[in-house]
Structure formats: C-alpha cells, structure tokens
Amino acid sequence: MRRLFLFASAAFWLLVLAFATSQLWLPAAVETPQPVASGEFQALSEVARHKTPDDCWMAINDQVYDLSNYLPDHPSEPEVIVAWCGREASEAYRTKMKGRAHSARADRLLAAYRIATLTP
Amino acid sequence: MSAEPTSTPTRAAAHRLVAPAAALSITVASVWWAFPQGLTAWRSAAIVAAWAGTGLLVASLLLMVREAHLARLLGGLELSYRWHHRCGVIAYLLLLCHPLALALDGWAEAPHLAWQTLDPRAQSWPLWLGWAGLLSLMLGLATTFAVHLPYRRWRSFHFVLGGGVVLGLAHVYVLLGNERLLLALLLVAALALGWRLLASDLGLAAHPYRVTQVEKPAAGMIEASLAPCAAALAATPGQFVLAAFGDGASYHGCGEYHPFTVSGIDRQGRLRVCIKALGPCSQRLQDVEAGVLVRLEGPFGSFLDDLGCAPQLWVAGGIGITPFIAQLRAQGCRQATTLIYLYRQASNAAFLEELAAVAREDPLFELLADASGEALPDVDRLLASVSRLGERQVHLCGPQALLAAFTTALRQRGVAAAAIHFESFDFR
C-alpha cells in the first residue's frame, strides 16, 4: 500500500503541475470573440465590491451578472446563494446540490442578468 | 492473526466479512444517494469518486473504534485495523481523483478552465476546505507509512488524518447543507471520532486496575499482577489488553495505551501481564511498582479460543510465551500438546522452570525448549522432533521472522493453512 500511495500522490501532483503549466505547453488557442452584450468589461476586484444581498454581483464562466433583483426568487435557502455575492462562483454554479449542474432553464434565466464580461 | 480457531470456522469466516461488508454498504449508499444524472462523464466521475471516498473515509473511522464488543463483531481488533487502513488508502485514492476529474471536465470545455478549476486563488473557503482536507490526508498518510518514525511521533502525525477527514466532511457540508444522508455520515464520523478520542485515548471507558505485585521472570521483562478496582475484564487465555500505566509513589508512568498479552487470569478477575522492554514506554515500565493505577481496555483477540480436541503444536518465540503460559495456568492441557519454546539465551527464557514443572506433571504436555541465540532456529530439526505433525493445530506467537520461517516449513510438511494460527500485534 505504501508504493500505491507514493505512486498515486506523485501522479496527482504531476497532473496538477501539467494543468498549471498548460498555457506553456498547449498550442496557442485561436481567439474567438466573446459574446459581449454591452461591450463592457469588469474586473473581479470590481465584482468583489458588490457583495451584499441588495447589491449582489457574481462572476460565472467569465461573465459578470448582477443578481440583486433575482435573489428573492432563488429557490434555495438565502445564505446558500448570498455567500457567493461578490465572488467568482463558476464552480458553485456548476455544482449545486449533490454536485449537479443548473438546468438549461436556469442558464437562460441567468443570461438575462448579465451585465459585463469578466476582465481576463 | 490467521484463521480463527477451528471449531467455529463458519462463524469466524462470517465475522471476517463484517468489516468489508460494512465499508461497502456505507460507500454504495453514499454513491447511490448522490449518483449524478444528466452531467458530463468527467463531472459524473468526479462526483462518484468524491462520494465513494467520503463513504470509505467514514467507514475507516468506524473501523478505528477500539471497543471489545465491536472488535469481536468485526473479527478482531487486528482485522478491524487492517480494514481501517485499506479503507483509508482507497478513500484517499478516490479523493485524489475528485479534483482531477473536475479539472478534466473543465478541460473538455476549454483547456484553460482545467487549471481555473483547481487554482486555489480562483476559489473560496468552501473549496479551500476540500484542499486542506486532501493535503492533510496526504501528509497523514505519508507519515503513517513512515514505519521507522518513533511510535509517539508516528501517533501524533496520525491525528492529522483525523483532521483531514473533519476538513473534508466540512467541505461537503458547506457545499450541500443539511442533507439527510450527509447528516447521517457526519453523525457516524462524530461518534466514531468521539469514542476513539474520549473513551479510548483519554480512557473514559477503561477499567481501573491497580498493580499489586511485580516480578522479573527474565532479563528485560517484568510480569505485573493487576487487581481490579471495580468490574473486572472477562479475559480468557490468548487474549490481550491495552494498558496505560499511571503514576506511583516513586514511579511516573507514560500513560500511553500499549497492547500486552495476558499471562495469567484468576477467578477473582486478577490479571497478570508480561512487559518486555522494547521501546521508551515499556523500558520505563520495567521499574513499575505496586500501587500504580492502570487503565485497561479490552479484552481483545481470540488466539486460543476453542482449542478443540485436536493435538496441538504451540510455537513461542521470546515474549510470545505469554498466551501459552496463561492457557497452562488457567486450564492446563486438555489435549496432547507440544510447546516449542525458543529464546536467545537462558537468561531471556521466562517461565522456563514453571513450564518444565508442568511437563513433568502433565503427561499430555511436552516441552521442547531451545536457546537459538541471535540467529533463526533450526526449524527443520525442531519440527522433525514433533510427532503427528499433520494432525495438529498449530499456534504461533513470536517475532515476524520466526512466524514466517515456521509457517513456510509447516506448509512444506503438508500442514494446512487453516490449521496454522498466529498473532502479530502489528497495529501500525
């Protein structure tokens, strides 16, 4: 079991390292235009300033959303979603209850609250 | 410990399955409850790995509980600990797969998302909890496998594993909230950790005894007589107890629990245990004195349970004589029994005169004592002097090298594996 532990741990860190340095060894990606609704860009630091239930921005999948008006309608307990106000919430959006992703309906609904693209 | 004693093979075999069956049930229930639907393959794999790992971690905690009744149900403390180790390592492997599969899920969407999924700078405390848990498991397991670490340091690093489990469960709780199965897993984990820390490690469930007499049956070895201060443990020959010795008038005990095989049991519940100077704590115990308070847990083990009526061959190396002397003192021999007693030199041979006296008085008992020095004994010569070898049930107790040498030689002479029983006391 000791060998198995050492081998698995080494393989894990090698893969993490490979992901971390992927920009160095991947061929340069062809830039595709981002879907920009308003043409505006916002940095994560700006998103972080909007972190209250009354003024709630979130960064999800490189887009910025103002969800202040939507929060009262969200089906979960308020603290579940309020905790993500002002933050990068892509992973949380993809892993709601039991790790399941949000539905296509939720995706469409979310799009209505988009206000900007996240500054790369 | 090898196969259980022969008269109850079916029950023993069933007990051996309880621990893996319990671990499997918890794991399957967790995965079943959380089984993803409508997700990508990599995300589904990540979720299954996470829940299988969580289930196995909780099972691992359950198998770490040190309680006599539970240990008996699980086929013995050593078997229970073996499954505790296996579950822990497999859980760790599965939990390593969890973030990697999430990263691959991101990769499938766009390669740069893979690192974004893993990068702690892009995450917040619910996911940092997960990372902290995984890294704690990694550190804890790395030290668990460092068998050359001194026992006390090894044991303190082992607590890091418990911290890793708590952090991992906190990570799941923060993400999921009050879900019924998750709460059940948390309850089992809390009970198992609580029992282990409070009842076992702090000794709240231990039985108080007091040292009444200390003898030195051989060089570097003592035999302590212990009288119960309250209810006595129902120990039988071949069993061991975990004992933590406290302080006396001029003795300062190390207070750690260590396993000691019982070498004598009387009708009043008084026990005798043999302690050989093998480490710092057992070295200090060579000076233990009458009056010292001892906390005992157990009894554990079933080494000499149900000896049956088949002729016996007992092989004892050094302090491995203790279960056999306990059996002879308590019940004598009920079937033809040959004891091969091996020791380095006469000064290391505990109870030799007592054994010789039993051999003179009991026609069923034969003693073959041999001072083998530092090298392994001549196993072939010793076994050649044992009659009806193929009919005997063989019980071995001693150092690992000796057990291995005898087991190989016995198997070469046609003794069935099921007829060979041994204890190894390897709890790390």
From TrEMBL, chain A:
GO terms for cellular component: membrane. GO terms for molecular function: heme binding; metal ion binding. Pfam families: Cyt-b5. SMART domains: Cyt-b5. Residues 39-119 form the Cytochrome b5 heme-binding domain. Residues 1-20 form the signal peptide. The keyword Heme applies. PROSITE patterns: CYTOCHROME_B5_2. It comes from the Bacteria. Keywords: Heme, Iron, Metal-binding, Signal. InterPro entries: Cyt_B5-like_heme/steroid-bd, Cyt_B5-like_heme/steroid_sf, Cytochrome_b5. Belongs to the cytochrome b5 family. This is Soluble cytochrome b558. The lineage of its organism: Bacteria, Pseudomonadati, Pseudomonadota, Betaproteobacteria, Candidatus Accumulibacter.
Automatic annotation (TrEMBL), chain B:
The chain crosses the membrane at residues 17-35, 41-65, 86-108, 128-149, 156-175, 181-199. Pfam families: Ferric_reduct. Its cofactor is FAD. It is found in: Membrane. One of its GO terms (molecular function) is metal ion binding. Keywords: 2Fe-2S, FAD, Flavoprotein, Iron, Iron-sulfur, Membrane, Metal-binding, Monooxygenase, Oxidoreductase, Transmembrane, Transmembrane helix. InterPro entries: FAD-bd_FR_type, Fe3_Rdtase_TM_dom, FNR_nucleotide-bd, MRET, Riboflavin_synthase-like_b-brl. This is Methane monooxygenase component C. The gene is mmoC.
